[in-house]
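Minutes, project check-in
Item: structure for the 507-residue chain
Input as provided by the requester:
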Amino acid sequence: MAAATFAAILAAAGCGGKGEKAADAAAKPGDEKAAAAAPSGEGAKSPSRWASDPFPSTYQPYPSATTVIKGATVLTGTGERIENGTVIIEGGKIASVGGADLAAPDGATVINAKGKWVTPGIIDVHSHLGDYPSPSTRSTSDGNEATAPNTAQVWAEHSVWPQDAGFTRALAGGITSLQILPGSANLFGGRSAILKNVPSRTVQGMKFPGAPYGLKMACGENPKRVYGDKGGPSTRMGNFAGYRAAWIEAAEYKKKWEKYWDEHDKWAAKNSDKKKSAKKDDDNGKEPDAPSRDLKLETLAMALNGDITVNMHCYRGDEMAQVIDMAKEFGYKVTTFHHAVEAFKVADLLAENGICAAVWADWWGFKLEAYDSVRENAALVDAQPNSCTIIHSDDEYGIQRLNQEAGKAMADGNKMGLKITPEHAIEWVTSNPAKALKIGDRTGSLEAGKMGDVVVWNGNPFSVYAKTEKVFVDGALLYDASDPKRSPRMDFEIGQRGEGFTGGSGQ
């Protein structure tokens, strides 16, 4: 369907006028000889020469109004709970958070949220929406490039279908940001993409501005099962040999480029004075030749350099311990172990090494490496000092109910006496995933200056009866349970049998 049609539908639904840039225009690839690019992600220390993005974000927030949410129980995502609290959103950002005495700006829209709960927008650190979209067909199954054990050269965003109706259903579940990962067939599956959960004609229009890329890796059964009859690896020791060989090759590639950049910097400094013309036969006057680019090794080199976060699909505790040692061998950092059904067995190691565990509340036993877990897995990881527990989905239905998944994990922890409060557990689906994705300086908590990603719930979000009433993304009200016409509907849904022209998000 034409972009104009989609824009018209959004306008009719109260979401038009976004002013999106020409995202369909082709972006120029980064200059191989460029010495610097803008830093990205939380805690970036200095510009990295690796960090250019040839497919830059064109995301622009939807129009928003100054909004005051009053009278709610507010969970800030920082461990604080405010009864009869007030949240003010202005200019698309959190302006202030406080008690009932917080004054509303003139002309603000005031929402009476007495008896309701307010939280930061929910963030899913592990999703395949867009890469495995709905409807699920072979033609849209684009999440696993299962052609070689190492496909670090592929990027998940090049498979994302922005019309996946799963995005709107996730929005109705309070999801405001999410990481789209490649599948787990390969040792190195490729790059992830971090998205804002907004309707867009293009994936560039959804990309979280400035968010770093992630690298998907997988250990255990999947790679050896997929490639056991295709030349390997066919064993876990084959898996590790494959990882290590790839890191060795990437380290050499990284050295080549760093040497080139240093030499090019020296050459540029010597030739900065245009009046000095270098002779062709003078070695000092020749511009150094850049090494050949290799997309696979480039991604791995950026992971070694810390520009790309490492997301490791891993179930068994003993394998996580081995991966941690391997990361130390090659000087990179695992940011998050995903699925991690045995994380409780190595919770101390994860905390000591600053590694998050993204887990399900109570899903395991579906294959041998996922056989041995406990309902208290998330809570036991969380109980460690300096821990980082995350509840993730890896599922197009689970993403709609991450609040309930976190509620189950909290209840199981409390049953064993860990005394986990709602104001703490909300961090498992807000500030902790934001931290893991290196976007915690911009979203994940209700703090002044951060993005206005906010969810209003009809009650305690950890109740099985909880439903979202309103979802704001950068201050824009994109989902309102009482106003179906506002909710986005994907082009694919328009005209389908039994479907009307207004009301999305499953309404």
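Outcome recorded: Residues 70 and 117 are 10 Å apart (CA to CA).
No further action items on this chain.
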